[in-house]
């Protein structure tokens, strides 16, 4: 296993260190040690759910709900503005003998626009936050990583981690019992 | 904990004994602070009840309306608790097994509330509460436009039919609440899967009957305050108020038990998170129902339909009507929106108290304008009655916890509810 795995068309900078463990408990023990040492940008890649992993490496809250809320407020504001402007000012229309500014009649549209925009914002924010469309991920360059869907348990520490250093991080993961530890090119 | 505790809800069966060695956190409440609190509560109830009796002589008409208001407030919550008990059986819910005993204990209140229904009957047949009483018991009117109304209403409100309906409602409610709790307690003593299957077999019919009876109870007791007005969704409106109120009460009871050191590892923040999600959903549902009722009446603009809302536009009722959707929908909506609030016991206590107070506000807004059409006239009975009735509910639930384990200790799905986690697949 070479210590540095190049990626076709890569940037030359390291993406992170990837290493393999024999089973879930070894991976969990290693993950706890890695976090205790102070690494934060840690991720585990396993074929199935390993109990305790969430507590060991923590989990990041997605920013997606904020986009949903923003979309909902956008839709509500747009619906209110458009209806009051069109129905009461731009082209006043008598409907059912009611006043021009009958907010009650606008409520269904408030609701629909709120839901519609919240849905759109959620969908596109999800695509954007995930960096889609993405046809290739640097971690796929790791020679044995395709086993992560069958029987391989992988731990990765990304280069964005403040305490990341290609050689020392790789050596440290090997000292924890990781096999095939390698720096992957971004 | 003691090895054998006998309970009274056995219905002729030999006394039930629970297995020895129950953990302190789920064993029936002993003679600790909670039991003392329950006894103090009963004392406070007697005092408030005495106040109500005084009020009945001081201000009879106001008393009957306030009593109805407080009564419906508590009964709605108790029915909501019974509904949740049944729906968890219908859905074969595993995550909420621990919560079920709280709902079962809350629905114990239906029996004392059935006894406390007598003053409402006195008000009805004394002609103090309902305008329809004088109308349907008068001879047939000669005016053409009232004739039809009288013909339609006098059969529906005829005393035998009216009383028979009420007997049916209470029979269904008492039957299902007592039976569901009794089987659940028997399962604690005997174990086995048969009783779970029995409860699941009976629960769907209970949900259907509960829906019908609660709807018609709302028609008979609340909608008939203005007997010329009608709204087909009114039963759902009443029902969803009870659903929200019972969830809020359930969470408050659980938080109280947890703060006393019970249920710590059994009902965790994960369960509270899920209950808060349901509360959020029913907040939106209430707004949907309430607005649908208003919207269709507003759009149709027919005198016999609009009278309900016109009455609530007089004087002080108008700002109260405006504030109702804001305080009962918008504020809880945004309070329950962030995930952190749903997982914080402190926030949940605030939110649940808010929802309960607003549930009372909602019912006050539905009942009191009939008595005071001009504007709001607050009366001390308006506070005493709901406090007394809610105290009856809490006392019934509290005695339930003294007599039985705090969770169904031998439910087969217990391992689903203990250690339940929202994020674990």
From TrEMBL, chain B:
Keywords: Membrane, Transmembrane, Transmembrane helix. The chain crosses the membrane at residues 40-59, 65-88, 109-133, 155-180, 201-224, 236-257, 278-297, 317-335, 347-367, 379-402. The keyword Transmembrane helix applies. PANTHER family: PTHR43044, QUINOL:CYTOCHROME C OXIDOREDUCTASE QUINONE-BINDING SUBUNIT 2. This is Quinol:cytochrome C oxidoreductase.
């Amino acid at each position: 296993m070479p210590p540095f795995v190049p990626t076709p068309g890569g940037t030359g900078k390291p993406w992170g260190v990837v290493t393999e463990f024999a089973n879930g408990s070894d991976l969990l023990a290693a993950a706890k040690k890695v976090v205790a040492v102070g690494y934060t940008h840690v991720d585990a890649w396993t074929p199935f759910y390993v109990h305790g992993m969430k507590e060991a490496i923590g989990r990041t809250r997605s920013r997606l709900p904020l986009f949903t809320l923003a979309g909902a407020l956008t839709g509500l504001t747009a619906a209110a503005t458009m209806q009051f402007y069109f129905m009461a000012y731009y082209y006043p229309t008598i409907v059912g003998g009611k006043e021009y500014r009958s907010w009650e009649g606008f409520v269904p549209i408030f609701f629909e626009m709120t839901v519609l925009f919240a849905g759109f914002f959620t969908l596109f924010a999800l695509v954007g936050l995930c960096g889609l469309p993405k046809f290739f991920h640097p971690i796929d360059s790791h020679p044995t990583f395709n086993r992560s869907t069958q029987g391989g348990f992988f731990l990765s520490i990304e280069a964005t981690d403040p305490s990341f250093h290609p050689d020392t991080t790789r050596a440290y993961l090997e000292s924890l019992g990781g096999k095939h530890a390698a720096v992957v090119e971004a | 904990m003691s090895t054998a505790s006998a309970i009274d809800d056995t219905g002729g069966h030999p006394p039930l004994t629970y297995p020895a060695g129950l953990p302190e956190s789920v064993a029936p409440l002993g003679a600790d602070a909670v039991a003392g609190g329950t006894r103090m509560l009963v004392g406070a109830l007697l005092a408030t009840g005495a106040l109500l009796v005084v009020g009945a002589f001081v201000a009879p008409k106001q008393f009957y309306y306030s009593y109805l208001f407080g009564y419906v407030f508590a009964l709605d919550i108790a029915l909501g608790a019974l509904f949740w008990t049944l729906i968890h059986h219908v859905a074969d819910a595993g995550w909420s097994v621990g919560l079920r005993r709280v709902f079962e204990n809350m629905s114990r209140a239906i029996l004392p509330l059935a006894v406390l229904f007598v003053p409402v009957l006195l008000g009805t047949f004394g002609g103090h509460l309902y305008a329809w009483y004088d109308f349907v018991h008068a001879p047939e009117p000669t005016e053409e436009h009232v004739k039809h109304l009288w013909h339609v209403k006098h059969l529906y409100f005829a005393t035998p039919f009216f009383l028979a309906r009420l007997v049916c409602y209470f029979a269904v409610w008492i039957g299902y609440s007592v039976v569901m709790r009794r089987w659940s307690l028997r399962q604690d003593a005997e174990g086995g899967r048969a009783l779970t299957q029995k409860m699941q077999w009976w629960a769907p019919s209970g949900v259907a009957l509960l829906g019908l009876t609660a709807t018609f109870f709302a028609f008979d007791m609340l909608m008939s305050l203005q007997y010329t007005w009608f709204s087909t969704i009114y039963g759902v409106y009443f029902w969803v108020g009870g659903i929200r109120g019972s969830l809020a009460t359930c969470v408050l009871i659980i938080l109280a038990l947890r703060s006393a050191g019970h249920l710590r590892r059994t009902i965790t923040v994960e369960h509270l998170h899920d209950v808060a999600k349901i509360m959020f959903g029913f907040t939106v549902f209430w707004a949907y129902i309430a607005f649908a009722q208003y919207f269709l009446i507003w759009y149709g603009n027919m005198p016999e339909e609009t009278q309900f809302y016109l009455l609530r536009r007089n004087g002080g009722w108008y700002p109260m009507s405006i504030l109702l959707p804001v305080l009962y929908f918008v504020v809880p909506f945004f309070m329950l929106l962030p995930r952190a609030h749903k997982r914080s016991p402190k926030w949940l206590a605030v939110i649940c108290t808010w929802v309960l107070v607003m549930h009372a506000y909602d019912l006050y807004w539905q009942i009191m304008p009939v008595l005071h059409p001009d504007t709001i006239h607050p009366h001390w009975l308006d506070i005493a009655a709901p406090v007394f009735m809610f105290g009856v509910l809490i006392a019934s639930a509290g005695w339930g916890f003294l007599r039985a384990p705090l969770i169904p200790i031998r439910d087969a799905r217990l391992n689903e509810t203990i250690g339940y986690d929202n994020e674990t697949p």
